[in-house]
User: What shape does this take?
Amino acid sequence: MNLLDVEDLWVRFPTSSGMFEAVRGVSFSLGRERLGIVGESGSGKSMTGRAILRLIRPPGQVDAERIDLEGTNLMQMSEKEMRDVRGSQISMVMQDPKFSLNPVMTVGDQIMEAYQLHNKTNRREAKARAIEMLEAVSIRDAERVLRAYPHEMSGGMGQRIMIAMMMIPNPKILIADEPTSALDVSVQGQVLRIMDKLVQDRGMGLIFISHDLNLVADFCDRVLIMYAGRIVEVCQADRLHEATHPYTRGLLNSLPRLDAPKDRLEALVRDPDWRHQPSVSGLK
Assistant: This one.
């Protein structure tokens, strides 16, 4: 059984000029794998991640035939039931994770709160788990970091702390929304290796949302390419550079490559007909 099955997902927002459809009929599944979702800004990839956790607030509307978490339809759950799902079963690392931390609470209090919210335990055990989790994301001197405030941390440290906070409840699925976009290449590699090790060790499913096709090709197992709220192509990550859809080809050709240098990169030319093509299924 898949960890997650999403079928015919729509996200809509009413505007003064009519209904805006941010996600349009998206269907895909997630096993114990690293699934990449890529596309330009505004393609609907982040909205898809938020919609899975029903984090789209009114007047936004989320509709789907089903969003099944191991056979349980999240669309039929109450808000109270969804609060039990968020964190304990599905966690999400937002864009620029450091800025998702509460600036007036210590790092330790925030991580321990995330653990105690889903586990009936005392503060001593929560602290021990927090230290263990910080060490798992390669943070040295975890005791000192527990006592620190978010503003005292670098960008890379903030990313790792947020990943630790999302992983400490031991969820089945992690949704990572461009978690390394603000990092330099060396720190980015470290954070990706940490996430990969945690996912592999725990047998989790990972949805990795990014605009960086080269990064996704190297890191993920399977890739969904989104354009204008729809999936236009699905392919194995290691064969992404063999993609056939003109949008995917345009994105790839606009990126520099060390193995295929060009004097001049191509500009992406969009075809208006792409908006009207049906969404490709990513279901397995």
